[in-house]
Design brief:
With 86 residues, the protein is an all-beta fold. 0% of the residues lie in helices and 27% in strands. The chain is built from no helices and 5 strands. Strands 1-2-5-4-3 form a 5-stranded antiparallel beta sheet, with no helix packed on it. Strand 1 and strand 2 form a beta hairpin. The radius of gyration is 17 Å and the shape is elongated.
């Protein structure tokens, strides 16, 4: 009687789940284009927070939060997001 059961895997991927992505490049523009090291899975409208230690450069982004305004996963440099941070 106590030996049967079932289970189900539920994917957990909410908007603010603390995923880590590594930045490989950032442009200095009115809307920063951030290139990431892996496929990011982000969508337009999501918010991202940046943690950038001084030793890695572009420390102006450290602790800033921005909204994703565009994504690009199709080019050879792909895996980039555009955020509303100047």
């Amino acid at each position: 009687a106590g030996t049967t059961g079932s289970f189900r895997v539920i994917k957990f991927d909410p908007i603010f789940y603390p995923r880590h992505r590594y930045i490989t490049k950032v442009t200095q523009a009115a809307q920063a284009v951030v290139t990431l090291s892996v496929t990011h899975g982000y969508q337009v409208g999501q918010k991202v927070r940046f943690v950038v230690p001084d030793v890695y450069g572009m420390s102006q982004l450290n602790n800033l939060q921005g909204t994703i305004t565009a994504i690009d996963t199709t080019t050879t440099t792909g895996n980039s997001i555009t955020v509303d941070i100047d």
